[in-house]
Write a structure and sequence with these properties.
single chain, 16 strands, alpha+beta, elongated, 23% strand, 41% helix, binds zinc ion, six-stranded mixed beta sheet, 10 helices
Amino acid sequence: MTRVVRIVIVRSIKLTRRIFGVFVELEGMYRNMVKQLVIYAVRNSIRSFTRLKALKYREMRGLYPQLPSHYVYTACQDASTRVRSFLRLKKLGLAESDYPEVRKVSIWLDNHLWKPNGLTSIKVVTHKGWITVDFEPHKQYWKYINCGWKLASETKVKLDKRSRQLVIYLSFIKEVEEYKPRGYIPVDVNENNVTVLVDNLTFLFETNTEKLVLGYYYRRKRIQEKYDKLYGKKSRIKRKAVRKLKERKKKLDIKWKIANIIVKTAYEKQYAIVLEKLGKHVANNMIKRIKDKQLRHRIFQASFRGIQRAIEEKAREYGVPVIYVNPRNTSKLCPIHNAPITYSNGSRIGKCSKGGEFWHRDAVACWNLLFKALRGDGSHAPNSAGSNVDVSPMPLETNATHDPIGIPKSLWARWNP
Ligand SMILES: [Zn+2]
């Protein structure tokens, strides 16, 4: 059983002046507690929440006796989380100041401090008693409600002072059991496509990652340079522009679409997904136009991992097992003859040096990933005795070209699985 958690953000309706005032006060007290706790914890190198609580509970209670006592608990949790990540950064020499800055505050609420109140409202206990907050549900929220997700007992709220709304971060939980795979779907991630093998057929999803990743990189760089010149390196306005760009990128991100298609297919067939362990792409000739070799490498690794992570995350949600195999030689050896395949001058079609048959590079990679998974070469791979996968591989016709079925982005990006 694995527990999957997703945060769904909803906004309250506009708060009345009185209720808004209560939350402003509450946030002020909470922020103050977190600030003091953070300073104390850093000074005394306290990372543990329970220790921080044991040492500071009495004092904090004395400071704000009107606050329900559990706010001290959650402020301690909040503070110790901040302190732990700060100390980690400091150890790496990345912390810019002596203490973590408590700039953005969302109020952590445990099960004593809030409760759901019907489906479109919550109750929060404050220094002025219980307050009902109605929120505006949206499509995504109803999806979680209707698909077997349960609300966790903790939540966070943040006050949006400009719009006088409460932003509510609801956590939804689902317990998922991984099934025993009846087959495999190998996935090969490349610079400009993602290739999958499903029941003897290879499908090649065109992605143009290269263009997307590079386009974003240069746009971000341009924004940064422009704002650096105009407002200085640490300006707020620059942070905002970069954030906006990031958000847009996320929205347009095709990796979730791909992950959805692959994971849902695997789930329907009750197959496992086979991925490469990272490492093969070190000398990848992608993004050749970037002169800086290291940068080129870093950008590609990030986008490559991004697709893998999206698949992993979706797979967890559906209980689809994921198996990792060593990517070594996956596109170099003929899966039938175990002989080298020769690719002439950059072509993606190669010829088997023994059987003479033709292979598409990405199709070969998928077949080899499949065989590696069947042999149990990968981590978490079931051994053949314990698995219920048919180990006799599918027939490979030696005279076929093994061409994958290409699916242009214009087609699959609109796909609604
Ligand atoms: Zn061959």
